[in-house]
């Protein structure tokens, strides 16, 4: 009987003991997991809980390194100095908040809250903080050599990001002179260049946080010069001025030069070449050369120079000796003329002897 009484009392004590051991703290509210925050903003993580007994101690831990951020126990709340500039901590018996100030991407990771009651029963809650930021160092590149390309050709525009945003890049957009051209999920566009001119291209990479523009790439869409002749005066009479003129289409506006084909010299650096008082030695081919950054175009102009007969001379056959009366003598008259002389006149002592188209006189 006595022993039975003792055992009943022991069982009661045991019951009470086990009841207290089973009193486990539990969270009634936890931050959403993951908790998203834009870089630069503050974020407050809030837990509410039922300590189910008496609060003993609690700890905030930065999981990636295992470092304690803050703890509270009978001696009060302590925020670890390494974190004290960056966090605000409130720990109460039924609620705790951890505020991360001016969050940056190195704050991305898991945060753990641990609470324990005086019966040494504890519970933890881990929350991932997802620090969102825009793509950075966005670059636009093309395969245009020297940032020049021809009208009608195709260019490969590639938008790349140095630092992918968090979350990763969603879309890329291409702009030409601030006008939207198109969206791409790969950041690549093959585009035909449909108008000539100077254009500023840029691309933009965006994610849910925002969009970042690349620096601008300036591309000259050019057209190779095509010479459209205006004037190639030929023939020209010796002593007259010869004015050669050419024009060309093309973009950028072409530069001109008239080149002397026989010497290779540039006779004029403009559209116009004036050969003043042209001489017979200046007849020949002149090349109009129109060039721009894209290429060049040429046309030739062949100038013929007419001049009057000159340095005429007469030869006799047999040459320069005394001939017998009645025998034949032939005279040949030669001259330099362009076009060649077509009539020769033979005079003897001031009176016309005969005219000949061949320049030969048999007498
Ligand atoms: C973050 O919190 C600090 C301290 O409370 C405050 O000064 C600052 O303005 C807050 N920043 C933002 C972006 O809310
Ligand atoms: C992010 O914040 C931490 C803590 O304040 C600081 O040590 C680190 O330099 C910051 N990083 C950047 C990239 O700003
Ligand atoms: C640039 O790349 C595109 C696509 O591959 C190609 O069609 C085009 O000919 C290239 N242009 C130049 C100038 O290399
Ligand atoms: C466009 O350029 C990018 C980067 O150089 C390259 O990876 C891609 O293959 C090119 N696309 C075409 C169609 O040539
Ligand atoms: C990016 O470029 C586009 C097109 O020029 C412009 O509308 C937009 O304002 C720019 N965004 C930023 C952040 O500069
Ligand atoms: C595009 O922009 C460039 C530079 O800002 C300017 O020189 C050019 O005239 C513009 N082109 C057109 C077609 O508007
Ligand atoms: C990102 O680009 C897509 C496609 O153009 C657009 O629908 C979306 O609104 C943009 N988002 C932001 C944040 O700019
Ligand atoms: C030829 O050009 C020269 C120099 O420009 C000028 O003095 C002369 O009058 C011109 N002659 C003719 C026939 O036009
Ligand atoms: C030369 O050609 C250009 C382009 O076709 C044209 O605009 C210009 O009027 C021409 N100039 C002359 C003087 O013919
Ligand atoms: C072109 O070159 C030839 C040969 O050197 C020369 O005789 C001629 O005078 C040149 N033409 C001009 C316009 O100078
Ligand atoms: C003119 O263009 C041709 C190809 O079209 C090139 O071989 C040549 O070097 C160019 N000449 C000059 C003077 O630019
Ligand atoms: C022709 O004869 C004359 C007189 O004898 C002489 O002066 C002249 O040099 C001769 N001419 C030639 C081409 O032999």
In whole angstroms, the N-to-C terminal distance is 184 Å
Number of helices: 2
Q: Portion of residues in helices? A: under 10%
Ligand names: 2-acetamido-2-deoxy-beta-D-glucopyranose
| Category from helices, strands and their pairing | mainly beta
Give the overall shape, derived from the CA principal axes.
rod-shaped
Query: Mean of the pLDDT scores?
Result: 91
* Quaternary organisation: single chain
Enumerate the spans where pLDDT stays under 50 for 5 or more consecutive residues.
Answer: none
**Strand residue percentage:** over 45%
Summarize the main sheet: 8 strands, mixed
Tally of strands: 31
Report the radius of gyration as a whole number of Å. Answer: 50 Å
List keywords for this structure.
membrane, six-stranded mixed β-sheet, signal, binds 2-acetamido-2-deoxy-beta-D-glucopyranose, mainly beta
Structure description:
It is a single chain. The chain has 363 residues and is mainly beta. Helices cover 7% and strands 57% of the residues. The strands form 7 sheets. Strands 12, 14, 15, 17, 18, 19, 21 and 24 form an 8-stranded mixed β-sheet that branches. The protein has a 6-stranded mixed β-sheet with strand order 2-10-9-4-5-6. One 2-acetamido-2-deoxy-beta-D-glucopyranose (NAG) binds next to strand 17.
